Amino acid sequence: LVDRGVREIILTGVNVGTYSSQGRNFLSMVEALAAVPNLSRIRISSIEPTTISEEIFPLMADPAHPLLPYLHIPLQSGSDRTLAAMKRKYDLSEVSSSLIRAHETIPNLCLGTDLMAGFPGETAEDFEQTCQTFLDLPFAYCHVFTFSERDGTHADRLPNPVPMNERRRRSSRLRRLSSAKRHDFYEAQVGREAIILIEDPEDGFWPAYTENYVRVILRSERTDLTNRLARVRLCEARPEYVEAELLELLD
């Protein structure tokens, strides 16, 4: 892949943090990839809360290491009662402590999560706890999923389903909270320099992502920026992206 010009590899899979093959675990796989010549970036797509090895935190904190400062944790709910009903194998105190340590250890870390609205039996109080958990923890955004029934599943047999209109209302509120936190995160990035990997041009501008997953829009008359690494200054936060100024190309 690297020989064909790939600059960033994204590690993805079901329970990717439990990877094990030929005596190699997730951490040793990351280190093996980091040793590949000319591989600029390694990003973890999503990793279960119970499988995060805190040994990766110093790697993410090291700007010379290709493992990027980004974690997406599918929390699912901010209510311990709902997590138990979902049969999730963790509680909030356990996960919160790890996420706070990550936030304190890794400069400019972007933390994202998944939250589900309207799981069977989720009360108004449970939902309020989820909203407050999302606000209290150092998340930059959340992906929101509205619960929907699936025949034959454990959840489909649970009592006290949440009416669909209430599920949608809760989902809408979570998305508004996510938009506000994402914008706050983007605002906090303004003024600093960042390294971006530039994508194909769209409508006269160049989209890109920083190391910590800030979507960037770069305006340039150049025509040779696709798949280039560049140093930029983050200038102005918009709801969905940050405008950036090109400082130098790094390759």
UniProtKB/TrEMBL annotation:
SMART domains: Elp3
Keyword check for Transmembrane: no
Segments passing through the bilayer: none
Name of the protein described by the UniProt record: tRNA (N(6)-L-threonylcarbamoyladenosine(37)-C(2))-methylthiotransferase
Function, in words: Catalyzes the methylthiolation of N6-threonylcarbamoyladenosine (t(6)A), leading to the formation of 2-methylthio-N6-threonylcarbamoyladenosine (ms(2)t(6)A) at position 37 in tRNAs that read codons beginning with adenine.
GO molecular function: 4 iron, 4 sulfur cluster binding; metal ion binding; tRNA (N(6)-L-threonylcarbamoyladenosine(37)-C(2))-methylthiotransferase activity
Organism: marine metagenome
PROSITE patterns associated with the record: RADICAL_SAM (PS51918), TRAM (PS50926)
Enzymatic reactions: N(6)-L-threonylcarbamoyladenosine(37) in tRNA + (sulfur carrier)-SH + AH2 + 2 S-adenosyl-L-methionine = 2-methylsulfanyl-N(6)-L-threonylcarbamoyladenosine(37) in tRNA + (sulfur carrier)-H + 5'-deoxyadenosine + L-methionine + A + S-adenosyl-L-homocysteine + 2 H(+)
Residue ranges annotated for the TRAM domain, each copy included: 187-248
Catalytic activity, EC: 2.8.4.5
Enzyme class: transferase
Domain Radical SAM core stretches: 1-184
One Pfam family this sequence matches: Radical_SAM
Keyword annotations of the record: 4Fe-4S, Iron, Iron-sulfur, Metal-binding, S-adenosyl-L-methionine, Transferase
